[in-house]
Write a structure and sequence with these properties.
With 385 residues, this protein is mainly beta. The protein has helices at residues 75-83, 122-132, 199-206, 268-272; strands at 3-4, 7-8, 13-14, 16-17, 22-23, 45-48, 51-53, 55-56, 64-66, 95-96, 112-113, 140-142, 163-168, 171-176, 180-181, 184-195, 214-216, 221-223, 226-233, 237-238, 242-243, 248-253, 263-264, 278-281, 284-285, 287-291, 307-309, 317-321, 328-336, 341-350, 353-357, 364-371, 376-383.
């Protein structure tokens, strides 16, 4: 066997591959991969004057170019900048010029920079726009080079961080499970959902305001009678200097008394479109649970908090916590990602916190539904056993 495809890899660029197989026994090297006709379509990008080059920005070196959401290539840049400050500073304007063979140095100029001219973040966005034709901040571009994408079957996104999200009193809120000092949220994304045809809810979402610079990504999408609107933050936002456990921060204001008809979506659409809830602080994943999540048929009360833990589950026991619901009969149902019912427990007696055995479930992602005849609560959980 003497015929091979030539592939070039780099520490923070996506791989580029020769268009055709080369018979190495008689091929006249070198191979010019700056010529468009020589490279596999989609594995290189035009730099200038018809010259092609490798696609910059794959900081996580996984064959995917991604700006927002879990596993993105932008967060590690700010995280590295902060980690290099020997005095423990938290200044987003820091610039590191002391060199280093860093994956986060996307421009490869021995300068680490997050904002301002010639920063290492903007090239990720610019290349995503060029490669996908989309301005959406949550879009992902996967390498066309075979077997180069290592996240094609990546581990599930574990919601085990301290920051939970909920809809309450016409606000989208982040609630912290631990004291955070001098925090900065560099990325938030989530999807709001409401029943199609609910014009008041639609207008509330359309006219929502956000001090966290959350912006809609396109128009709402109607999926099986439910509208989905993706929001992603466009710029970092400082948190309170001291944000204490159980306190909340409002990231979006809706108005119009629609809290009981709008929820944070957590379903197949959000999973497949990088539209799930995600939040990072100084480039580190802090994503927790979606709390008070109703379905599209029965809204839950605006102040009722609902969570499942541990998540992921490794012990075979899943705990359900609804502090405000006590001495109540509920129906508990578990579904897989395709919506198939896996387990049904009828007339379970809930006294604030209850536990169910999920030891028979295989590794994977599941949805839990709890129905108390007045409200339906749903949550996603991961089984790792």
């Amino acid at each position: 066997l003497t015929e091979f495809y030539v592939v070039v890899y780099h520490r923070n660029h996506m791989p580029v591959m020769f268009e055709e197989q080369i018979d190495v026994s008689d091929f006249m090297f070198p191979v010019d991969l700056t010529v468009e006709g020589n490279v596999l379509e989609g594995s290189a990008i035009e730099l200038s004057g018809g010259t092609f080059g490798m696609i910059a920005g794959d900081v996580t070196h996984d064959g995917r170019l991604q700006y927002s959401g879990p596993g993105n290539d932008r967060g590690p840049i700010i995280a590295k900048i902060i980690s290099l400050d020997l005095e423990g500073g938290t200044n987003i304007n820091q610039v590191h010029t002391d060199g280093g063979y860093f994956f986060e140095d996307v421009l490869m100029n021995n300068i680490l920079k997050y904002i301002g001219a010639d920063n290492d973040r903007d090239i990720i966005l610019a290349n995503l726009r060029e490669l996908t034709g989309s301005d959406f901040l949550n879009v992902i571009y996967e390498s066309v080079v075979p077997v180069s994408v290592t996240k094609g079957e990546k581990e599930p996104h574990f919601n085990d961080g301290p920051l939970n999200i909920l809809v309450s009193k016409d606000e989208i809120r982040l609630q912290t499970g631990k004291h955070i000092e001098n925090g900065l949220v560099d990325n938030i994304q989530f999807t709001l959902a409401w029943n199609a045809g609910d014009d008041q809810a639609y207008n509330a979402v359309k006219n929502a305001s956000s001090d966290f610079l959350l912006r809609p990504q396109g128009e709402p999408l109607n999926i099986n009678g439910v509208n989905h609107q993706v929001f992603v933050s466009v710029f970092p936002k400082l948190l309170p200097q001291n944000w204490y456990k159980e306190e909340h921060v409002t990231v979006m204001t809706l108005g119009d008394n629609v809290s009981d008809r709008i929820w944070i979506a957590d379903n197949q659409f959000t999973l497949e479109n990088n539209a799930m809830f995600f939040v990072s602080v100084w480039g580190t994943n802090f994503t927790g649970d979606i709390m008070s999540t109703p379905t599209d048929t029965k809204p839950t009360g605006t102040d009722i908090q609902f969570r499942v833990y541990p998540n992921p589950v490794s012990s075979g026991i899943l705990h359900i916590d609804i502090p405000q619901v006590t001495n109540t009969q509920v129906a508990i149902t578990i579904f897989d990602l395709q919506g198939n019912m896996i387990k049904n427990i009828a007339n379970e007696h809930v006294t604030g916190t209850t536990s169910i055995d999920v030891s028979e479930l295989s590794r994977g992602i599941y949805f839990l539904q709890v129905d108390n005849n007045e409200s339906i609560f749903t949550a996603r959980f991961v089984v790792t056993q």
